[in-house]
Amino acid sequence: MYQLAPNIELLFTEAGDYHDRVRAAAAAGFDAVEMWGPTGADAPATPKDLPALKAALEETGTQLTAQLAEPRTQFMIPPWDHSEFFRKLDEGVQIAHDLGCPRMVVGSGTGFGGWKRQVQLDKLVEIYQKAIAQIDGSGITLVLEPVNVRVDHPGSLLDRTAEGVYVARGVDSPYFGVLYDIYHSAVEGEDIETELTNAGSLIKYVQLADAPGRGEPGTGDLDWPATLAVLRSSGYDGPIGLEYYPQAASDESVRYIRDVAAQA
Ligand SMILES: O=C(O)C(=O)CO
């Protein structure tokens, strides 16, 4: 049985503010949620009401499993000047601590100015070794997310799971791993079993959506019982973020994947 964490940017939006989405997720029987950064999908320029969010998490006993190291622009490391990224990293860690969140999601950005791919991957290793040193002692794990470039993130550097694994091996820290997003991987045409076997214990968080379309499981082509069985046999037993754009009402959209996850 996997712990599922609805993404409150995309699910339970019917409830209103982020803190009410936490309450709605808890009322629907979830004990975990995930979110993007201190700003969110609703109003990218406006900070979330973090005290209200914290109160809702505590009142309902809900675990925040992951947050993006935002603002969202910082999920994308700029090509040249990385100082803003490192500054935001400290802010993100502070927020994660306040909200009791153990993981922060980080990305590659669009790469580093036309160098050979291998050089750019090694640059990512260097940046994240520095990031891990900077947040040493915080207890927060950074999870690096390869994202698909075919549909959602054209121009991003890191689109292959195996390259995320390469970077994680290079960073070589128990507080650094890969976020394996089943949707992004499927859109990239990857074979889940091959990727998970290669990644082993470096997968430190998982998200899902069906493909194509990025809706809830059951709206696309993926075989969910088989997919979660492969995930289970890879050894991953952590939470799974439900990061999809629901096509049905939120509480209906979760039904099928909950059934599958309960048996996985
Ligand atoms: O922005 C995206 O597509 C993500 O998957 C973030 O987690």
From TrEMBL:
Class of this enzyme: isomerase
Keywords in alphabetical order: Carbohydrate metabolism, Isomerase, Pyruvate
Family matches, as Gene3D superfamilies: Divalent-metal-dependent TIM barrel enzymes
Active site: 145 (proton donor/acceptor), 243 (proton donor/acceptor)
Occurrences of domain Xylose isomerase-like TIM barrel (ranges): 22-259
Source organism, top-level taxon: Bacteria
SUPFAM superfamilies, A to Z: Xylose isomerase-like
InterPro entries per the UniProt record, alphabetical: HyI-like (IPR026040), Sugar_Epim/Isomerase (IPR050417), Xyl_isomerase-like_sf (IPR036237), Xyl_isomerase-like_TIM-brl (IPR013022)
Enzyme Commission number(s) of this protein: 5.3.1.22
Pfam families: AP_endonuc_2
GO terms assigned for molecular function: hydroxypyruvate isomerase activity
PANTHER family, per the entry: ISOMERASE
Family: Belongs to the hyi family.
Protein name: Hydroxypyruvate isomerase
Organism: Microbacterium lemovicicum
